[in-house]
Amino acid sequence: MPAAPEIRTLTEPELADWIRALYTGFLRPPTPTPAAVAHRAATFDYSRTRGAFDADRCVATFRSFPQQLTAVGGAAVPADAISNVTVSPTHRRRGLLSAMMTADLAEARERGDVVATLIASEYPIYGRFGFGPAAAVADWEIDVPRTGLDPRWSGPDDGGRIDLVDGAAVRKAGPELHERFRARGHGAVDRDDRWWQLATGQVGPALDPSWTEPFHVLYRAADGTVEGLLTYRADDTWGDAKLPMNTATVDDLIAVTPAAERALWHYLCSVDFVTTVRTGHRATDDLLPLLLPNPRAARPVTRADWLWVRVLDVVRALESRTYAVPGSLVLEIADEYGGRRGPAAGRYLLDAAPDGARCVATTRSPALTLGAAELAALWLGEESAARLAALGRITVHDPHAAATADALFRTGRAPWCPDVF
Ligand SMILES: CC(=O)SCCNC(=O)CCNC(=O)[C@H](O)C(C)(C)COP(=O)(O)OP(=O)(O)OC[C@H]1O[C@@H](n2cnc3c(N)ncnc32)[C@H](O)[C@@H]1OP(=O)(O)O
Known about the structure:
- This protein is an alpha+beta fold.
- It folds into 3 domains: 6-119, Gcn5-related N-acetyltransferase (GNAT) (Aminopeptidase); 138-302, Gcn5-related N-acetyltransferase (GNAT) (Aminopeptidase); 314-409, Nonspecific Lipid-transfer Protein, Chain A (2-Layer Sandwich).
- The chain is built from 12 helices and 19 strands.
- It is globular and about 65 Å long.
- The relative contact order is 0.14.
């Protein structure tokens, strides 16, 4: 029987081999370019980058980094963001992911992170570790000629203006705009400098020779404040009868006012030649379809789980968000994975009010018993307790408790994480 692969953190000389394993797991051409290695070398925290090594070959990858996740009400909570998870096909289903995850989550809890986050490649992987789908996304395809929008539109009529700008202008205005955006949207995560460099091509061409420059547009309100950013690409498709049939695809559209959101969508649907708009991943309750005079012109093409959350510290997670109405609830959280007690396990009394909440361990009888994954699905307002109870995933001890939980936890707008990480 060959020795089990050794799981440990990385040293810099092993990075190229680690990236090769990463590309292998994601079915990308395996050998990284020197630029890709150099870029990651400059941005990685090796103490949070794990690999599994069989003899001298890296056969599994796992990385985490610090992140700020916006809770309901706008507070940023420290999150352990998990990414780059792969196990090579030669070593699958031997527990390598489980071992790397267990080690990372233990460190995150120790560090004081409130939650762990990830974007799951496939639904069945992470529930077993206490992650729950916490913010879904939806994509629409807009049939532009059917939207009912005025085809003679030539810009916002609200005093604002739209400007095409270059990547340098986006790197200047984008981060501050995004800070305002994420402070008002639960489910959003922070973006570092590297995010803006990648989005604007400062490092893109070196990392990926097929990278092409997108179009960037800023919306400024009448007083000059930047309130929205749109980044999009377009193809070059023409029909047989010399009719333009171009598709514009959104890379990023963030706005801090409905006026900016409305103007940016209207702008994109007004670009000459563009007959189809692909929206990219939006909030499931995005304003978009209803911004169009004919909402059916926006055909839903995707609705899927996106951001997954794992609560590591129940007290701080519940105290960090706001609640629409006052109320109290005793929750029993059943949390076990890999045969051990998980960090969310316990019985908690939540005393919630619109201006804050208090959560303490309690011995009182629970109103609801739920798993860590279900707690995550409720925490950002994504899921309904009544629905989880109907599915048998929440045990209801008090007949009013599911309704109370929904009154407390649900939010007027759906959570949304526009980013992939
Ligand atoms: C945040 C991100 O980076 S998402 C990207 C995740 N990576 C990928 O999808 C790339 C392709 N897939 C892979 O690399 C691997 O299959 C991984 C990482 C998903 C799983 O790694 P493994 O080492 O095989 O997982 P491990 O052996 O620890 O499995 C633990 C349990 O999860 C189950 N499991 C693991 N992966 C899957 C899956 N894709 N679908 C269903 N069940 C799964 C296993 O069957 C096992 O179940 P058991 O305990 O009941 O026996």
